Each structure stands twice: as C-alpha cells, then as structure tokens.
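Chain entry —
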Amino acid sequence: MAGLYLSNLTLSHFRSHKRAVIEVDTRPVAIHGKNGAGKTNILEAISLLSPGRGLRRASAEDMTRRPEALGWKITALLHGPLGLSEIEIISEKGAARQVRIDGKPAPQTALGRITRVLWLIPSMDRLWIEGAEGRRRFLDRMTLSFLPDHAEISLGYEKAMRERNRLLKDMVREPSWYAALEARMAETAVAIHHNRLHALAALEKAQDAAETAFPTAALTLECEMPNDVEAMRAALANNRMRDLSAGRTLIGPHRADLHGVFAAKGIPARDCSTGEQKALLVSLILANARALAADFGAPPLLLLDEVAAHLDSDRRAALYDEIVALGAQAWMTGTEDGLFEAMGDRAQALLVSETDGISSVSKPA
C-alpha cells in the first residue's frame, strides 16, 4: 500500500510561528513543549491541507501572526497514492485563503483528491454531551473523508435552505417562490443523508473487522426526513405552514443527530465516564483511518492534539501500537516527551519552544 505522509512543512507568519521549517520522515511525529508554545498551531496548519475550515474552524484573519498581520503562508510536500504534490496555502492580510497545488491555483475541494486528514482535539471530548450540531459536524467530517464531494453538496443545501428560510421569515405564502428552492433542497438533502449512511456503514465494517484495545461504538443516525428526492420535496411543501410559524425549516439533514452507544456495555455514550467517552472517540478515529486505508489506498494523516488526556498508560501504549500497525503518519502533541516514551524509535520527536516571543521547532539533540 502506498503511504501518505508529509516530508516538509513550512509555516510563515502563521499563528505563533514567524517562520518554522519542519522536515520529517514517514514515522509518527511526537511534538512536545510547554503550553502556549505553538504545538496545536502546527496541527492546525496541517488540517488546512484538507477541504474545510480546519480543526479550529477559524477565519483566515484569525490565523495571521500578530502584531504584524501581514498574512500567512503554509507550504507542504505531500507524498501520497497519486505521487508527490507541493501544496501552498496563502492568505494575504487576512483575506480568504488561496490554494495552489504544484504551482497551479486550485479550489479547496481539490485537496480532497490527493490527501485525507483526520483529527482528534480536546474540544471534541464533549462530543457526546454537547448539542447535536457538534455531532453533525463530526459525522460530516468523517463523511467528507470518504466522499470529498460531500462538502459541495452540503454547501448547496445550506444555500437553498437560507433562501427558503428568508422567505419563511418574510411570511411569503406564494407556492411558486418555494418550488425551485425545495426541489434543490430535496436533491441535496437526500444526497447528504445517503452520504452519511455510507460513512457509518464503512465505520461499522472497519470496527467489526478490527482487533483493537479500544471499545466499539455503535452509531445510529436519527433524521426526520424521507429517503428519496420526490418524497422529500413533497414533505418540504407539506410542511410550509409549520415552517412559516417557526420562521425556519424544521425537517432535513440539518436537524439530524448522531447517537453512540458503548457496544460492549450497552450504555449510551453520553452516560459513559470521561475516560470511556475519550476511548470511544479514539476508537472511531482509528476505525475511520482503517476504512480510509482500504478506500483511499493509504491511511490518512492523523492529528492527535493532547491525545494522552484521559488515557491511562496502557491505553496510550495500545494507541501507539495501532497507529504504527496502521502505517499512518500521526502528528501528536503533549506537554512532556515522556508521554510518548512507549513509541520509542518508532516515532520522531519535535520540540516546540518560545524565546522572546518567537517560537521555534527543532528535533531534540
């Protein structure tokens, strides 16, 4: 199986990094350093190599280094199933970011054809106890990893729904104003729903086929909507009076929720302990990675921020073993190098430090 890895990552005026040049091999990367040194900023830069808003969902302006605010640039050498690609992502003075692949301008969606990136960050630890929006976003990121076109379909649905909601808020009752919008919404809504079910099926298969130290999460998608386009169009039309009263669309994939259960115990994920919830998340990320290895032809880049939190030493060691067995280049952060001791020479270490307000990234002597 061809690998997927970065050999070079260069950051210019990105977040805390005035300039950082990182050269690595195919092994997992263990990044350590004090809080605030800029470890997560490196992971965020890598997350931008995939379609979407990155692991912090920040604006391009928020990513620029202060106080200069000159804009920023990320350059990466990516090795994957399709060969070597040079990726440049640029934001000039906070403007929307621009992508270049091998020197040519490209849309963000083109990144999904050459790479796959998955991440697990501390804010996701609340996945099972927060609102449904966070779980939908989590599911859509997994879906996008299998089906890069899912992003465009979702944007199409959201645009049509915004226009329909505007009509509803203005109390427009004339059916002709709604017909074209509802036809577009129905087509994209059903596609979104089917894409999500495809991703869940791939995850289930990957979990069932694996021997892992992490608990299996049984996932179900709750969504109040028909499964075919014509029925969905009719449902939107029939629901107009109810939607007019609410001032918004009340059925569709934007109302879906993802439910998880600790399969071995039969306990809803929301009722599990903090450690069990973390283990379930790790299990899903690993299952997603295994499924992608078969689907894409290589395991994805894994971004694991403060991954040791809520994992005991045995589970940390088991996680490292699974990453190595998978063959993934995982970028992991922690405050101490001892957190990655179980990796030994199977990983390469990077130290992130800060002197006089300027961060630096180096390989420990």
Notes: The chain has a mean pLDDT of 93.
